[in-house]
Structure formats: C-alpha cells, structure tokens
Amino acid sequence: MDLQRTKDDVLRQYVNKIYESIIKEEREMEERSDDEENEERDDLVEVKDTNQMNKSVVGLWNVQPVNTDSARTTDTEENGAKKREREDATTQEPEEKGTKRKTKKQKVSSEDRTPTSSITLSELGGIDDVISQVLDVIVMPMAKSEIYEHIGTDIPRGVLLHGPPGCGKTMLANAIANALKLPFISISAPSVVSGMSGESEKKLREIFDEAKTLAPCLVFIDEIDAITPKRESVQREMERRIVAQLLTCMDSMSMEQTGGNPVMIIGATNRPDAIDPALRRGGRFDAEISMSVPDQLSREKILRTIASKLRLEGDFDFKKLAKSTPGYVAADLQALVSAAGARAIKRIFRDLPAISNNNDQMDLDDDQQPPVDPVTKFLTNHPEPLSEEQLEPLAVTFADFMEALPAVQPSSKREGFTTVPDVTWNDVGAMKAIREELDFTIVKPIQEPEMFNDLGISGHSGVLLWGPPGCGKTLIAKAVANESQANFISVRGPELLNKFVGESERAVRQVFVRARASVPCVIFFDELDALVPKRDDVNSEASSRVVNTLLTELDGVGDRTGIYVIGATNRRDMVDPAMIRPGRLDKQLYVELPTADERAEILKTVTRNSPLDPSVDLIAIAHDERARNFSGADLQSLSKEATVCALKSALALKKQDPQSVSSAISVSTADFEKAFSKIKPSVSDSERLKYKLMNEQDND
C-alpha cells in the first residue's frame, strides 16, 4: 500500500506541474497577443509556431526523480498552494481575459513578396513557343481578368511547367512574375514537408491563406512532385494527407473565394508522370507547358542571349557553337559560358605579364627563378588594380568557348541520356546501300521536314537493322544520329529489364518520355530480341507486358512526332512478329558481311590514324582468303592487333639495343601476318549461310 501511495503522490506532483506550466503558457500567450495589438500590421498573415507547449510538456516529463520519503509529508501543503494559484488564475480579471481572447489574431508577416528577379520574358532566348503559351494562359488572364469575367469565362487556376532539369522552368516563373509586377510567393516543395504530424498541411494552408490576402498574386511551387506523389503508390499516410490538402487549397482559390482577385498557381517539375492525376485536371492545373531540350536554332538564340553580357572579341560563330552543343539545356549553356570566361581569365593571367613593364619582363626571363604558377606570377607582378589601358584589350574569344566544351558535360548525359554521337559517315566504311536507305528514311525527314509535310508523307516510324554480329549496326545508328544532328538515346535491351513487377514497363515508358522532351530524337534499341522476344515462346507474363508496352509506344499512343526508332538484332527470327509490321519497325535492312572491296574500304577507314609502312597493301589484305568471313569489328581488331605486334617488336628491339630503335614506329605487312594468326572471324561459314537464306526468304 505504501508503494502504491508513493506512486500516486509522484504522479500527482507531475500532473500538477504540467497543469501549472499550461496555465503559465496561456498567460504568456495572452500577454504577447496584447502586445501585438499595439504593433503596426501589414497585409501578410503568418501563423506563430505553437509547438513550444509540446516541448514544455516533454521537458517536464524528463525531470529528476522525487524523494519519495518526503513526498507524502509535503503533498498536502503543495496541493493547497497549487489549488489557490489555480483559483487566482481563473478568477483574475475575467472580463479583461475574455476581451483578449476575442481580439487575439495571428501574427502579421512582414516578408516582402515583390518579385526579386530582374529578368524579363524578352531576355529568355530560344523558347519563343513556350513564351507564347505563357502569354495566353498566365499573363493575359492575370493582367486582364475583367475581360474573362465580362464574357463569363473561367480564368485558369494553375499551370504546370515540366521539362528536363536545367531547361529554365524556375527562371521562366520569375520572368512571369517580373512581367506582371504582382506579389510572388515562391516556395520549394521539399521545404513544406515537416516531421511533425499535421505541420506540412498547416504550412500549405498558411501559404494559400497568404495568397488570398495578397490576391491578385502568383504562387510558384518548385519541384512540386516532391509533395504530390501518386496516392496509390505511397506508403505513408502523411504523403496522402499532403496531396489531399493541396487539392483542397487549390479548390479554394476560385474567384468567388478570393474576392474577385485571381490567384495563379504555377508548378514546376521534371517528372510530370509522378504527380497525382487528381492535380492534372481542369480547375487545378488547367494547362501544362512542356519545355523540351532546345534544338540547334534554339541553342543559338540562348547562347546569343547569355553571351550578350560578355565582352567578345574577333569573329564569333554562334551557329558553329550551337552545332557543337547537342543535348545541352539552358543551364548547361550557362555553365559553358562561365567555363569559357574562366578559360579567358587564365589566358589573360598567362599573357598579360608578357606586355607588362620592363622590370616584370626581366623577372619573367630570369632562368634562375623556380617555376611559378601563372596566377601567382600575375598577382605578384600586378599588385595594383589594372588600368583602363591594360583592361581594354581583354576579352573572351571563340577559342575560349571551344576549349571549354570538353569540360562541360550536358546534364542529360550525366543522367545516362546519350547526346549526339561523334561518329560520322566517314567513320563507317562501305555499306553505301544501307547509308542511302537510312539517309532517306531518317536523316532527310529531320533535315527537310517542310518538303515531307508539303507532300503529306513522313519518314518511316522505325527501322530494324539485322544481320551477323560485328557488321556495324550500332555504328550506323550513331552515324545517322550525328548526320541528322538529332539527340540520341542508346538503350541496350537487357538493361531495361527489372525483376520488380511493373518496373520494366515503366523504364520503357521513361525512354519515350525523355525522347519527347528531346525532339528530334533517335532511339536506338540494341539487342532488341532480348527486350521483345516472341510472346508465343515466352512463359513469363512480365516479358509479355514489356512487349505490349513497347508496341503501345511505337503505335504512337503518346506523341511520336520527331521520334525515330532504330532496332538492332542478330536474331531477327526471335523478335516478336508484331514489332515488324507497318507502323512500327516497318523498314528492315539486312546488314551483311562486307565483300572484299568493302573490306578494303573498311581497312582504310580503321587504319587512317595508324602509322602504316608504305609497303603495306590493304587491298591484298582485304582479298586474303583468311579475311573472307571477317566483319567490320573483326577488321578493326585485326588492325589493332597488327599495331600491337609492331609495338612489341619495337620494344623488344629497344631492349636489345636502345640506340637502334627510332622514335617512329610503323606497322608492316609482317605485323598483319602475325595478327592474322591471332584474329579469327566471328561468323562461321554455316552461320553466314543461315543469314543468307533468311534474307532470301524475306525477298521472295
């Protein structure tokens, strides 16, 4: 009994302390509310964080243990004192307290919501189509809402900007705000998420309540996909509540509820398919604006806009620079300009001391001086600010941009999204017939779309390259993309397959989503037979779903304008027949083993950078019987092995007599003979006959 009484006493003391803390907290809140009534108020509403009470309660539960021996003796006195204090607290000035509670309001925020960016829509280059859509669905409704109200048309409530990272979505939103000169509430979606239950929803309500107060205004939610995942796929209930709260908040932004002043919600994401479908309907995000990877003409405009602030020197070929930057988005081009500026500064550090005064020149010419970094040398020689005469000749040159190109990798390439390859037709030996077919099928529709549109025809939807391994199918696909200056996505069939249900189909859809954001684009599926095997021969339901997904995408359920598909396989008989019907991969090109003359042409191509001895006869090597079944890859291996043999011979000779070997090493006919003994053809006579018969059956 004594132990139970002791526990009750300790618990009673804890409860009394907690109750006392709550009374004290209420008093402090009322005092602060009374002080706030005397302060100047702005128009922005900000809710005070009331989580302190929870923290106080948690802190009180962490107090040190109480001495139980004295607990019972002091309990009566303490309880009496606490009771008197509570009575005093509840009876003290009841009328004044009631008045305070009636007049208590939320704390007013003094945060400035005027647009902070000075960029304008006219300063955004290369996105003329996007700006035209922005003017129609955002600028016009917000600037002249009375027109919409007069004719009875609803103003769009939200617009979703989507496109690859770095294409300028955030910058466009800032330019819109600057153009309208309206209050601009810009938030990052991840900053809304809180660990406390209910805090995330509360932040959203505060943001939209502030928007109602500031209306007309713009609300910009960057990376909106972070708080709007598809509710059927999320695991935590909090994520569902955040999505539901955002839907409710957007529904409350009607003109009737904002006092006739429009509020426009602008969302930005690079993953539009990850957003809950309930947001992408009328009354919420009424319009969607896609910002794709810029083409060559758009890149030229963007470069001219960015470089307009630079001090340029000499002939500046923006067209050539734009052609050298395929796959670059606006952020990548901005990084290129910055890298070119850094190159120019380094060049200035290196060159400027050469035109400095005589004392500096003497220091530079002193051979006794240890090597010094150019920047250190420059700072030592020029401790004072440069004069106008010294600054006048300094500028960024076109050479600085070309030197900076290798250092700036486009963001799409860092994500595994291949840009235009550096393979040209000059790197492809022979195969003239194949090249002509692909030139008309893919290259010309991209280069001359007006001619095809005027005649009402389009290029083939897709091309299937099939034949023995090593014949250059992948090389041809890369050369086609380079020749047409289209973006290039290379996909190896097996890498899209995933053991988790639905992931393989999602990966296939994602390939086409990327392609649609990078028009014109060539998608190359290597080892296609692994991705789309015959459904009759496949026991796995997952493989059938992958085939169905790819067939659906090829049928153009999504927009396929400007998207060209090239497939390559060694086993055409293993590919599902539905893939090669008209409208899909309807153009089939057989890439056979090269003839003797074609082998000679391929050898000339692969050895053009090799130091061949004048006695080497490439035509004779190509007509050699041992090279009869050699593919293009085999001939390249033969050339490489011959070069390695020449190097080994030179190293062995140098080891015996270091003075006997000259610096120039050449590949001789003997080296090719050694290479023939090591390199064997990839295709046997029986396999070559099988491919030949299969091709003849197609032609019959």
From TrEMBL:
One of its GO terms (cellular component) is nucleus. Residues 24-120 are annotated as: Disordered. Keywords: ATP-binding, Nucleotide-binding, Repeat. Residues 155-295, 459-595 form the AAA+ ATPase domain. This is AAA+ ATPase domain-containing protein. GO terms for molecular function: ATP binding; ATP hydrolysis activity; preribosome binding; RNA binding. Residues 31-43 have a biased composition (Acidic residues). Residues 72-98 have a biased composition (Basic and acidic residues). Transmembrane segments: none annotated. PROSITE patterns: AAA. Belongs to the AAA ATPase family. SUPFAM superfamilies: P-loop containing nucleoside triphosphate hydrolases (SSF52540). The keyword Repeat applies. It comes from the Eukaryota. One of its GO terms (biological process) is ribosome biogenesis.
